[in-house]
Amino acid sequence: MRTAAAGVAGMVGAQVLDRGDIAGAAPAGRGLGGIRLASLAHVNDPATTTLFPGDPAFELETIATIPVDGFYMNFVREGEHTGTHWGAPGHFEEGGLLADQLDPMDLYLPAVKIDIRAKAARNADYGLTVNDLRAWERRYGRIPTGAAVILWTGWEDKWGTDAYANLDGDGVIHQPGFLPEAVHWLVDNGRLATRGSLGTDTFGADRGIDDTFEASVTLFHEHRISLENLANLAALPTTGAYVLVGGPINKAGSGSTANIWAVTCG
What we know:
Layout: H1 2-5, H2 8-14, H3 19-23, E1 35-39, E2 59-64, H4 66-69, E3 73-77, E4 85-87, E5 108-115, H5 117-122, E6 127-128, H6 130-140, E7 148-152, H7 162-165, E8 177-178, H8 180-188, E9 197-200, H9 214-221, E10 225-228, E11 241-245, E12 255-257, E13 260-265
Parallel strand pairs: 5-7, 6-8, 7-9, 9-10
Antiparallel strand pairs: 1-13, 2-3, 4-10, 4-12, 5-11, 11-13
Helix pairs in contact: 8-9
């Protein structure tokens, strides 16, 4: 897997992928071999995008059409953390690396998926524990060094509805996430060594009730990236895949709206 997938970033950049490439195996003769790509991103659409409370409005306006102008174009105005996106360390860490300061390999990581859907369905404030991580490793093996550790909470199914933010009467978000001690364990035991990420199909790594954002602060302090508002996590294998993180590299950006790809082989 590592050998076959190592060159995918260059190949993706060198080719135009059609809808068939995105959904499954690349057609014979296209040069991708056995590599498969699946999108882990929601469609960037103001009608369905759930914004984090207080974030700027998302505007998508058609400003040119083929009958009138000879070409078609939209004008987009949104925050860097709108919809499916990634966050750079400088999003929370003063002096942390920003989007244009990252190494390209910070955006191409081995991935593991931890399924907490049943626990999250019973408790919207569920936090992944160190014991959960240890149990996962007993079953599936050690989390690779520098991995994207991705929580599958089931929240992606609530996208575009009030149930996604899940606000209570006081405006508090109720979403599952990583407990801070679980993030410290991943850092201290080398799973997030050198590079790595926390990913989730919610607003971010933290539980919604954690207004200190300790999980994210710990992640960004270690100069790692976040992957947020992910979708289609059924297409991401539990182990053996990579994630390839796209999106524009804004000057001094805190991150970027993105298409994030699951990359598998064979």
